[in-house]
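cron nightly-structures :: item 1 of 1
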Amino acid sequence: MNLTIGYSGTPYEHTVVPELVRAFCQEHPQINVFLENYAHQELKGHLTHGNCDVIFTMPDIIAGMDNLTYHSLLIGYYCLIVPSEVKLGPLPVSLEELSKNRLIFLDHRWCPPTQDQLQKEICRNNHSLDLAYVC
């Protein structure tokens, strides 16, 4: 038996997926697990066309797709990661305060819609950002 799991490669997935797969394989040694790493849109296509059995994603990624069922594994939130020498104001950090530092955003083709909306809101609130994008 084979199980193909799709994931987008978030830092969380890089940490958790190997542990999950290891534990699953120990409990089910008769199942061969294959991993696919693609952008969210490609993963949706792979799932709907039967190239993946399951994908790790977020509810807003598959919103409006009636042929899929979403099961929440965890509840999360977006966070800000900064070098320890960067001093920020009181928590939660205001969007305006982010303009004091260089920011790295995830390319809109790879990030979930809610993250893309957050990144656009940060841009709207900070007209002179030192900004870089990764994909």
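cron nightly-structures :: done
The longest helix spans residues 11-27.
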